[in-house]
Amino acid sequence: MLARLQADLKTAMLAKDAARTQVLRMALAAYKNEAVAKGLSPQGELPEADALAVFKRLVKSREDSVAQFEKVGQADRAAQERAEIELLTPYLPAMLEGPELEAAVKAAIARTGATAKKDMGQVMKALQADHGAAFDGKAASALVQSLLN
User: Fold this and answer.
1) Cα–Cα dist 87/25, whole Å
2) CATH 1.10.10 in the chain, residues?
3) In this structure, are residues 17 and 97 in contact, taking their beta carbons and an 8 Å threshold?
4) What DSSP designation does 92 have?
5) Phi, psi (rounded to 5 degrees) for 10
6) CA-CA to 50 of 20 to 30 Å: which in 43, 61, 82, 89?
7) How would CATH label the architecture of 98-147?
8) 2-91: what CATH class?
């Protein structure tokens, strides 16, 4: 992931793509900060799960910003945040959505033997173990709650 990020940054800089360069520099800084926080050197390679968590946090932060900017009527700032999200999402795995997410949740419920809402934590842990960062936690949580009623 680090090599890809650095290569993409170099390409953006050579292409004089200022917006992409800025976003990739910020992402690289977040990656390196996470590496240092995990006890590695700034040039250290994070495990894939940790690297994906960094990018998920970056995207989530921007999604929250979009909602806040739209709430106060700053459409131009919201559009800028959306553009940053589009530049960051290629670094995330394909997300489970719709029928795929529902099938994954049903499989996790069956595997854990969950029958009530109190078993939701077990189902979410099983889903996380099976699919890692490839699903939206809020959507999965809502689906688990609706299926366990």
Assistant:
1) 12
2) 98-147
3) no
4) S
5) -60, -45
6) 82
7) Orthogonal Bundle (1.10)
8) mainly alpha
Copy the structure tokens of residue 72. Answer: 């106060």
Instruction: Give the torsion through C-alpha atoms of 36, 40, 45, 47, to 10 deg.
Output: -90
CB contact burial 25-45 (16+ within 10 A = b; e otherwise)? eebbeebbebbeeeeeeeeee
Confidence (pTM): 0.73
Tokens of 22: 């800025």
pLDDT digits (tens, 9 = 90+) for 94-147: 788 888 888 888 888 888 888 888 888 888 888 888 887 778 788 888 888 888
Q: SS3 breakdown of the chain: % helix, strand, coil, rounded to 5?
A: 75, 0, 20
Contact 143, 98 (CB under 8 A): no
